[in-house]
Design brief:
Blueprint lengths: L17 H22 L4 H7 L5 H16 L7 H33 L15 H8 L18 H22 L4 H21 L11 H4 L1 H16 L4 H23 L10 H16 L11 H18 L2
């Protein structure tokens, strides 16, 4: 099999992934743009565009999967390697996220839920919800997903993907085609979630603020596209596929809105934004927008701050 992967381009011992920093900056700006739009309730035109800033989260997911493939290309399922991988991930996220749990609780309490934007009611800070957030399992609970740390759903998805990543990577080393059953299983999981919710009498699950949208299985396609980007980085065919798929995806979103099905775009959005993010990554890799950062430690520190930002400000 011809090797199209990104690692075939760059020495593994001197990673210079400057374009990833560019995309992280873009993701931050997109999320800020989204939340800025929510402040201007009367500016309908502005909000029409700012609502798409939420796609910065999927952009981060794509680049996260891409970076994990790059830095973890030698990762195996041996216990000692798995332990090192998980411990490293935990230390990058835990300090900031735990600080957010405590900080948002007292901020909500002191402001009586009315002064600080986007804070949830104290009723959401139950022992079970807090425990699920501490264990990073809140992505399985509608009650805990966003009620302790606003926007914490993105970190919940990220941590669950970390758990799955070594196993997915091992499958892709056998064949890239194994990503297809991973995606199919994810779609089936979303369908099962909607079916169970309907049986329990829950309605209105369509929409991009629903638990079904936040669910890791629904966001999995964004991570998968990040993995594909790594493996087919040099492939011109893959680049052409990204162009065609991006145009098709945008057309699908427009068609959904035109047909009055806008509330159901959530089920296609992670995959469509994942495709567009891959295309943008290819462009950004050739056009550097930020000063060159050769120090890899500084890049990792940027990742920590960015992860914390998403944990408390993601849509």
């Amino acid at each position: 099999m011809q090797n199209y992967s990104f690692s075939a381009l760059d020495p593994l011992h001197t990673p210079k992934l400057q374009f990833i920093n560019n995309l992280r900056a873009l993701a931050i700006l997109l999320v800020i743009f989204h939340h800025a739009g929510e402040l201007f309730t009367d500016a309908s035109v502005f909000r029409l565009f700012s609502q798409w800033g939420k796609c910065g989260v999927q952009l981060f997911f794509v680049m996260s999967a891409f970076t994990l493939c790059y830095t973890g290309s030698n990762l195996t399922l041996q216990p000692k390697y798995l332990a090192g991988f998980y411990i490293k991930r935990l230390f990058r996220i835990v300090p900031m996220y735990y600080l957010a749990i405590v900080g948002y609780y007292y901020l909500t309490y002191l402001t009586n839920h009315s002064v600080v934007w986007h804070l949830e009611d104290l009723a959401g800070y139950t022992k079970s919800n807090i425990l699920l957030n501490i264990l990073f399992l809140h992505g399985f609970s509608p009650a805990a997903n966003n009620s302790v740390v606003p926007g914490g759903w993105s970190i919940g998805c990220e941590m669950l993907f970390y758990i799955l990543f070594p196993f997915i990577l091992s499958l892709t080393k056998i064949s890239r085609m194994y990503l297809l059953p991973v995606q199919i299983i994810s779609w089936l999981a979303v369908g099962a979630l909607l079916f169970i919710a309907k049986l329990k009498g829950h309605h209105g699950l369509g929409g991009e603020s629903s638990f079904a949208y936040y669910f890791i299985a629904n966001q999995m396609s964004a991570f998968i596209w990040g993995i594909l980007l790594f493996y087919y980085w040099r492939s011109k065919t893959f680049f052409n596929i990204l162009i065609g798929a991006s145009i098709t995806g945008i057309t699908v979103i427009i068609a959904f809105n035109y047909a009055g099905l806008a509330s159901w775009t959530w089920i296609t959005l992670p995959s469509i934004i994942g495709i567009i993010s891959c295309l943008v990554a290819k462009v950004f890799s050739k056009i550097l927008l930020l000063p060159n950062i050769s120090n890899y430690r500084r890049s990792k520190l940027f990742h920590v701050h960015f992860s914390f930002y998403l944990s408390v400000h993601s849509c």
